Amino acid sequence: PTYHHRVVSTDTSGNTTPSPSATFTTTPTPVGPSSLVSDDFSSGVLGSGWSVVDPLGDGSVSLVGQGTSDARLSLGVAGGVSHNAWTPNESLRVVQSVADEDFEVVTKFDSVPVSTYDQQGIVVQADSQNWLRLSVHRDSSGLRAFVSKVVGGNASTVSNSALSVSGSSMWLRVTRSGDSWTYATSGDGVTFSTRASFSVAMAVSEVGVLAGNYARGSASPYTALVDYVFNTASPISPEDPTGPPVPDTTPPVVSGVLVSPADTSAVVSWNTDEAASSRVEFGLTAVLESPAVTD
Question: What's the predicted TM-score (pTM) here?
């Protein structure tokens, strides 16, 4: 049968908007991942697009400083055991599923590795056997800007260069164009220095941030503070807004409504441009007479 449907979404301020009514049949429509979504971690809730990967099960992930200009994502790894971003990747990560496309991501860390082999950075992954680490760590000589690749489960170093940081923050930038990759760092978020340019063929499925440690004896605990992760095509401005919240009187925008029907059921997916509760209204006629399904 043919079904009529629409999505009605209400944001946290009570503003409601419906999508246009539409119909679907039994022809399934594939739904793929989207571009990386920028986040300044100021909302107090880790966005639903993020997933926590904690291989050793002892990591700490929290949001701190919400409501201030220092809202951050905190990634903490325990001492006494290594959480090394090598193979296997035992670092603590927070990642998004993304489309396999060109992108540029900038991450600001408000933390600097202190003990030997404390590490923080950006991870780009196809799967557990194929991924990139673009990071900063400390060794016996000081801070290092480091890039490694894992291809077919085999890890190797791409670049390892000395890095000087004068303050308590650093910016890491990764640019992908086809199979070409560029990793750059900055001390002010404006002027970037290229640390590595290299080529790796990869069907990217996830992008995120990592925190880890490593020591042959006993690793020290380490906490990385992530101020933001920005897709440079759609950054957040202002970042970490402060002051009384501005009343939201704009309903959410509903887009990308897709339907994957089966014999006796259908999966309806959609996007909203802000956090919102939604429901799907449907029926055999344009009256949408069946009970709504709430998400």
Answer: 0.74
